[in-house]
């Protein structure tokens, strides 16, 4: 049994910390929210009063925080110099590549191994322990982080050096955002051209237009497998989180002077969808905006 500090017990972190406790670890949990802390305690974690208290004597430190600035604040104030230097530091939050690389460099300079390990999969996968982790860091860091990540996920993949996990995550989600919009506009056009949508699905899912947004996450209710579209676009992957990832992708593209016209247009369309009230809906609900020609 290892001592694991877990900081950030929100929608995702709550289930992930519970799975580490279920896996037999002594999980010392901290969150600014008293409610989140209480829920973690009910799921087998020990609630502690500060991040610094959580990391003292830890074998591993796991963070699941909203954005780069939260990660920087927590690591700079409460992890570096407070956790033992042989603790493996694992940041599972989705943050910008630059902050991930900067925090990793600070960690190395102080003798720590740190990995960025953002996830694919939502709240249900966090609760079920079936997340996919994309890990950036050294071979040693990856090897030390892996047993903890395996208790929270079904797949743990080493993406490369520091920041590579975040880079893989935002590249994947940029492709997802753009391919979802392309899938939505295709179904809208197919309908206007008089095609039966299930018939079109049967054709395209076996033809060259086939893609995950169509075959596994079809934005049209009643077509393909069951998806958020069949539940009035409730649950799934929130539009606001898709937009967050597209913004991170655009920021990263600018930092390396990459030309990403489809990603950039996807960001514009998701920004518009959020302004029109898409918040709280699954990201595939953008098909409604496209069907209504809201431009
Ligand atoms: P959330 O807002 O539900 O949880 C974040 C938690 O961090 C909150 O409970 C908040 O109180 C806590 N927190 C913030 N600052 C803190 C601090 N200084 N000290 C301690 N606790 C602090 O967010 P979430 O949905 O759990 O997402 C977490 C991360 O996972 C984000 O980076 C998000 O982009 C990513 N992600 C989310 C999903 C999803 O479906 N929700 C999917 C994949 C990745």
Give a quick rundown of the structure:
With 295 residues, this protein is of the alpha/beta class. Helix content is 51%, strand content 14%. It folds into 2 domains: 3-161, NAD(P)-binding Rossmann-like Domain (Rossmann fold), CATH 3.40.50; 167-294, N-(1-d-carboxylethyl)-l-norvaline Dehydrogenase, domain 2 (Orthogonal Bundle).
How would you explain this protein's 3D organization?
With 295 residues, the protein is of the alpha/beta class. It folds into two domains: 3-161, NAD(P)-binding Rossmann-like Domain (Rossmann fold, 3-Layer(aba) Sandwich), CATH 3.40.50; 167-294, N-(1-d-carboxylethyl)-l-norvaline Dehydrogenase, domain 2. It is built from 13 helices and nine strands. The protein has helices spanning 13-22, 34-42, 51-55, 68-79, 97-109, 123-128, 139-150, 164-192, 197-204, 212-215, 239-255, 261-278, 286-291; strands at 3-7, 26-30, 46-47, 60-63, 88-91, 113-116, 119-120, 131-136, 153-160. It has a six-stranded parallel beta sheet, sandwiched between helices. Helix 8 (164-192) packs across helix 11 (239-255) and helix 11 runs antiparallel to helix 12. Residues 7-13, 30-33, 36, 51, 64-66, 70, 73-74, 93-94, 119, 122-123, 237, 241, 244 line the site of nicotinamide-adenine-dinucleotide (NAD). The site of nicotinamide-adenine-dinucleotide has 27 residues, from helix 4 and helix 11.
């Amino acid at each position: 049994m290892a001592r694991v500090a877990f900081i950030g017990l929100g929608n995702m972190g709550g289930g992930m910390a519970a799975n580490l406790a279920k896996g037999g670890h002594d999980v010392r949990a901290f969150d600014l929210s008293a409610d989140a802390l209480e829920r973690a305690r009910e799921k087998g974690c020990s609630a502690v009063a500060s991040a610094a208290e959580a990391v003292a004597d830890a074998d591993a430190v796991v963070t699941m925080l909203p954005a780069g600035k939260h990660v920087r604040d927590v690591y700079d104030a409460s992890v570096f110099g407070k956790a033992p230097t042989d603790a493996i530091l694992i940041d599972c939050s989705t943050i910008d590549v630059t902050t991930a690389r900067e925090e990793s460099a600070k960690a190395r300079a102080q003798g720590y191994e740190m990995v960025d390990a953002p996830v694919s999969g939502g709240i249900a996968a966090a609760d079920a322990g079936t997340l996919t982790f994309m890990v950036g860091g050294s071979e040693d860091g990856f090897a030390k982080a892996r047993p903890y990540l395996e208790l929270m996920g079904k797949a743990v993949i080493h993406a490369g050096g520091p920041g590579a996990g975040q880079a893989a995550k935002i590249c994947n989600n940029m492709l997802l955002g753009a391919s979802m919009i392309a899938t939505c506009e295709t179904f809208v056009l197919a309908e206007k051209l008089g095609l039966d949508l299930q018939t079109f699905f049967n054709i395209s899912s076996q033809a060259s237009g086939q893609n995950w947004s169509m075959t596994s996450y079809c934005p049209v209710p009643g077509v393909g497998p069951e998806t958020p579209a069949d539940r009035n676009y409730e649950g799934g992957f929130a539009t606001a989180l898709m937009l967050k990832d597209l913004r991170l992708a655009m920021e990263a593209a600018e930092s390396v002077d990459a030309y990403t016209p489809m990603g950039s247009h996807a960001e514009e369309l998701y920004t518009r969808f959020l302004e029109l009230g898409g918040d709280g809906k699954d990201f595939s609900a953008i098909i409604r905006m496209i069907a209504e020609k809201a431009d």
